[in-house]
Amino acid sequence: MLVKPSVAGTSWRIRVTNEFGTRPVTFQRAYAGRQSTGANVAPGTNRPLTFAGRSSVTVPAGRAAWSDPVPVKVSDAQTQRLAVSLFVAGASGPMTWHAAGFTTSYLSDPGAGDHTADRADTAFPHSTTSWFFLSEVQAQRPATSTVVAFGDSITDGFFSTINGDDRWPDVLQRRLNERPSARGPVSVVTQAICGNMVTRIGRTPGGCTPCDGPPALDRLDRDVLDVPGVRVVILLEGINDLGGGNATADQVIAGYQEIIRRVHARGIKIIGATLTPSAGTAFGLYGTPETDAKRRAVNHFIRTSGQFDGVADFSAVTEDPANPGHLKPAFDTNSSVGGPGDHLHPNRAGFLAMGGAVDIAQIQRYALAPAA
């Protein structure tokens, strides 16, 4: 599995997860190296991972495990990727996975045995754009200030370019890198799940509930508050509650208020991102006038309530002024596979506009301020 870290580093830990499994999973061997091309690992970089000093680890259902640090040099986080290889011994049962990674990773043949130490791509003939069992990669370096992009498919990069690293959090990371601070780097960590919701209301009948992950209210501790060095959160969620679950605007706002309260209680700043338009979407309730009215009410709260520490007005930069409620036509295509868009997910151009709408000076001021 290939992962582009947000910061450079020489030592790394990985987190393997069986949080949504139904039986123990044994990771018999694991390696981490630096990608050269495709599934090839750069010579001299592929290192065995250990877990509490052991070469294998069995992770019970509902649990996760951290590896020990492993030395792999990534000198340029913008161009270099880590290659993490896992060998699962025996049957795993249902896998915990990140379905929409928009990054190519590679698989060996079924039943081919342990190829974690292999450097050549001939051992990994199959490709995927998902990540399996790997939930986090963490640089072991002096304290880095972290911004968490907390969201759903529009933060996850749905309709972004495969291997293009052009999700809006990627754009934000590049902008921060172009404006370095003497007080240290700022890392943008993406914690997004396609279909995710703020509230616990759930999908309307026929929706893809198992795909959505735990709602933001339930995953806030794991995916935001427990992230090392987190100083700022940018929250972009709610359209799935309105268009996929038929929540009211007040229910989404109440969810925001609980998240704001819990984030502020930890001394962390939170930026509210306005919901991008979805009129014309053919599935669920996303495309209805009622959903657009609720979206506008939610955005009014984000912009005017004063409860967020700042606003990233993604709606303002993506909505078509000639056709209110709709994405700009230039943003309504599919950059992943080509062809038309779905009127819900912005394309690469839309993500560039969104990443450019974040107030970099404000992010750096919050992220690099002395700890309270």
Automatic annotation (TrEMBL):
Positions of transmembrane segments: none
InterPro entries linked: GDSL_Rv0518-like, SGNH_hydro, SGNH_hydro_sf
Keywords per UniProt: Hydrolase
SUPFAM superfamilies reported in the protein's UniProt record: SGNH hydrolase
Any one GO MF annotation of this record: hydrolase activity
Coiled-coil annotated residue ranges, if any: none
SGNH hydrolase-type esterase domain ranges (all copies): 149-350
Protein name (database record): SGNH/GDSL hydrolase family protein
Pfam families xref list: Lipase_GDSL_2
